[in-house]
Amino acid sequence: TVRVLLGQLTPARARYSAVAKEFAPRAGMRERWYGTAYAERPIAAATAEGWLRPAALPEYELPRPNPFVPRDFSLKAPRAPAAQLQRAIEEPPPVAPKHH
């Protein structure tokens, strides 16, 4: 379910990357295909702990619900009998009056 998936999105399960030219002098490893310099560092425990309990940001808020997005996706029974629907498909109304 969606809730199970969202439960897996935690800081401990994430992969973080920081990319900048300023980091190049501290990059002690090289990637084997293109020779790109990189480094791996553990995330400080205090930083990871802070990610688990982030402070509220009042300048960020969720948008109001969109009234045009349905909430109920269950199937509905047709309003007209099947024979009436079939006739409507076979005999569509004319688009414009015929003027000859």
Automatic annotation (TrEMBL):
<feature type="region of interest" description="Disordered">
    <location>
        <begin position="79"/>
        <end position="100"/>
    </location>
</feature>
<dbReference type="InterPro" id="IPR050626">
    <property type="entry name" value="Peptidase_M16"/>
</dbReference>
<dbReference type="Pfam" id="PF16187">
    <property type="entry name" value="Peptidase_M16_M"/>
</dbReference>
<dbReference type="InterPro" id="IPR011249">
    <property type="entry name" value="Metalloenz_LuxS/M16"/>
</dbReference>
<dbReference type="GO" id="GO:0046872">
    <property type="term" value="F:metal ion binding"/>
</dbReference>
<protein>
    <recommendedName>
        <fullName>Peptidase M16 middle/third domain-containing protein</fullName>
    </recommendedName>
</protein>
<keyword id="KW-0479">Metal-binding</keyword>
<feature type="compositionally biased region" description="Pro residues">
    <location>
        <begin position="91"/>
        <end position="100"/>
    </location>
</feature>
<feature type="domain" description="Peptidase M16 middle/third">
    <location>
        <begin position="3"/>
        <end position="78"/>
    </location>
</feature>
<dbReference type="InterPro" id="IPR032632">
    <property type="entry name" value="Peptidase_M16_M"/>
</dbReference>
